[in-house]
Amino acid sequence: MGCATDPLPLRAGQVAGVLGLGLAGRAAARFLASLGLRLRVSDQRSREQLAEAEPGFLDFLEGCGAVCEFGGTGGSFLDGLDLLSPAPGVPLQNPLVVAAGRRGIPIMGELALAAGRFRAPVIAVTGSNGKTTTTGLIGHLLKTAGRRPFVGGNIGAPLLDCCLHPEGYDCVVLELSSFQLDISGAFRPDIGLFLNLTPDHLDRHGSLERYAAAKRKLFARQGPGDTAILGIDDALVAATKLPDGVRRLSFGRAADADCVVTADGLRLASAGREQLFPLAAGRLHSLVNRLNAAAALLAVGALDIGPEAMAAGLASFQPAAHRMAPVALIGGVNWIDDSKATNIGAMAAALASCPGRVVLIAGGRDKGGDYGLVADLVRQKVRTLVLLGEAAPLIEAAYGSLTPSLRAGDMHEAVHLAKERAQPGDTVLLAPGCSSFDMFSGYAERGRVFAEAVLALKKAEP
């Protein structure tokens, strides 16, 4: 097994433009320079800010003779370019990217640059929610089985680092965003996973249909011998059309899935036998994480990992922070941090995972999704809404007639209001359904502040 797509013709002496020098952009610059291409790079930050981001990178640029533009991009940047590689965070509507397309300059994201250059089987994971947990779990399961995976992409190491330093890896596990897949070129994963699809990043893609089309590019270059793994609880994912000869595997709560998510674990059909994996007592017990685990088992099963290693890996896996993370049990009320629920679909998945009634802390910076999609779930499960941030009025307008709602000025006030409304047996759930950048530096800070406020409550218990 291995990626059969031929590498795109990159030749020494060509001039490559790299637009955006974040982690992925810097990796792209190094990769292109390693092939002998001449670099022209641009970043909105100043030279001093870039030096702070990665000491030594400016020395690398100087050493390879790169032409650098900092604090913006001049009008002649595209002149003489053989290709332009925008970093994932650069919108395709960026005037420079649009102008490059009009000039006929090939626009190649990091996946397009890497296509055909991986020396080991590639597992690629996409979806609106659960990507990081699933990717990390796949890597953990492979390590438990004695494999040596490279784990990166949209998390951790940039994926081009694997092409620069392939030694030591016998498989590649990548988390991929729609931004990366938008300009993925001839990239072809041996095993592609599409977990779910809910409205997100519509400010970039413009519509759910275009967002879905970007995700489905994961499978566009697959062929006979490749595997696609689909979350069939999601109708849009289940309807994904695959190229001829691609093996289709599925996971979800439906009885005919290849890996069935049950009330307390997973049931995996493999080689004519059923394997049961109980998860009720472990860290992956929530519905969200049972679905992630089901996808991961199918992926590693496609690489011939056996049930013993699967069970050991599931038992020892530690999910990343701020993803359905238990914080405390106070007075019979369970407090859960799912600050990573930054879109409406993730909020819905978190709510569905909670037994009994929920006091939901939500809000932040609105991402343009449709709050109405979760209305029935809010009506059924939410005892009280505690809202904060810029989106509070929007969420209150969507759900205020369905359940009582309160406004909080900050996270500490939100926690105290939630405590007043929660009853024994309830869950207080931080699942904002919004980004955090109106009040916090990121979802991690938001989750940390929530956990600190909750633990202060617990410490004050008589």
From TrEMBL:
GO molecular function: ATP binding; UDP-N-acetylmuramoylalanine-D-glutamate ligase activity
Listed SUPFAM superfamilies: MurCD N-terminal domain (SSF51984), MurD-like peptide ligases, catalytic domain (SSF53623), MurD-like peptide ligases, peptide-binding domain (SSF53244)
Cell location: Cytoplasm
Residues of the Mur ligase C-terminal domain: 322-433
GO CC entries: cytoplasm
Domain Mur ligase central per the UniProt entry, residue ranges: 125-277
TM stretches of this protein: none
EC number(s) recorded for this UniProt protein: 6.3.2.9
Keyword Transferase: no
One Pfam assignment: MurD-like_N
Cited Gene3D superfamilies: Mur ligase, C-terminal domain, Mur-like, catalytic domain, NAD(P)-binding Rossmann-like Domain
Enzyme class: ligase
Protein family membership: Belongs to the MurCDEF family.
Function statement: Cell wall formation. Catalyzes the addition of glutamate to the nucleotide precursor UDP-N-acetylmuramoyl-L-alanine (UMA).
Record-linked HAMAP family: MurD
Name under which the protein is recorded: UDP-N-acetylmuramoylalanine--D-glutamate ligase
Species this protein is from: Desulfobulbus oralis
Native organism taxonomy: Bacteria, Pseudomonadati, Thermodesulfobacteriota, Desulfobulbia, Desulfobulbales
Gene behind this protein: murD
